[in-house]
Design brief:
globular; Rossmann fold; 252 residues; seven-stranded parallel sheet; 7 helices
């Protein structure tokens, strides 16, 4: 087992399921103490239990990333629990109004995606950077999507706009804060084996048939996690403001 992150603390938002859970598990497997964050205590506790079952160290913190006070408190509690913050992964996101043309996208769906998918990333960056630049730097990885800067699909306008904004915000923050010793990058998954990509009532087989890639299959959550860990690791020491696409060639 690799131990690239032994002695470090990693914070992962949206860690109660899907990609966030896979990312948290991967950091713990490589030695990090992991703060798992999200809005639902029960699912966060499940993630912590999975980490501890494998001998890892984790703690669950409920937080709503659309609230700046919540995110500041999340960083503070992480530091209090583990003694620092070396890596942050901003993964929390929602998908609302899928299938709605732009003209028919409901204001509540639009606002929810802006609040969590865009403003939530901004608030998280601000709280994480405030700690890191006062404590010797760190690494931040935002989780975007191929939808936005790379691919567009009908009926996904709100989500696409938000993820395109995250891509731009990531690069701006990377330039602003590399001088503070903070490396900021983006991972953009395509269709992946995660709950968000399943439509209501859809089976895994039906989802696989709906998505086609040159690779011939969906990207696994573990493959996305591996990309995140690479960007957060010393192996990517000269990688700043990049957008790493992990989509089986769909956007090529």
């Amino acid at each position: 087992m690799s131990a690239r992150f032994t002695g470090t603390t990693a914070l992962v938002t949206g860690a109660g399921s899907g990609l966030g859970r896979a990312i948290a598990l991967a950091f713990a497997a490589e030695g990090a103490s992991v703060a798992v964050a999200g809005r639902t205590a029960a699912t966060l506790d499940e993630t912590v239990a999975l980490i501890e079952k494998e001998g890892g160290t984790a703690a669950a913190f409920t937080a709503d990333v659309s609230r700046a006070d919540d995110v500041r408190a999340l960083v503070r509690r992480t530091v209090e629990r583990f003694g620092g913050l070396d890596v942050a992964v901003n993964n929390a996101a929602v998908l609302r109004g899928e299938g709605s043309p732009v003209a028919d996208l409901g204001p509540a769906d639009w606002q929810a995606m802006l609040d969590i998918n865009v403003t939530g990333v901004l608030y998280a960056l601000q709280a994480e950077i405030a700690h890191m630049r006062a404590n010797g730097g760190g690494a931040i990885v935002n989780v975007g999507s191929t939808l936005g800067a790379h691919v567009r699909l009908p009926g996904m306008g709100g989500y696409t706009a938000g993820k395109a904004a995250v891509a731009a915000l990531t690069r701006a923050a990377a330039l602003d804060h590399i001088g503070d010793g903070i490396r900021i990058n983006l991972v953009s998954p395509g269709a992946s084996d995660a709950p968000m990509s399943l439509r209501p009532g859809e089976t895994h087989e039906e989802r696989a048939a709906r998505f086609t890639t040159p690779l011939g299959r969906l990207t696994s959550a573990e493959e996305v996690a591996a990309a995140v860990l690479y960007l957060a690791s010393p192996d990517a020491g000269s990688t700043v403001g990049t957008d790493l696409v992990v989509d089986g060639g769909a956007a090529a």
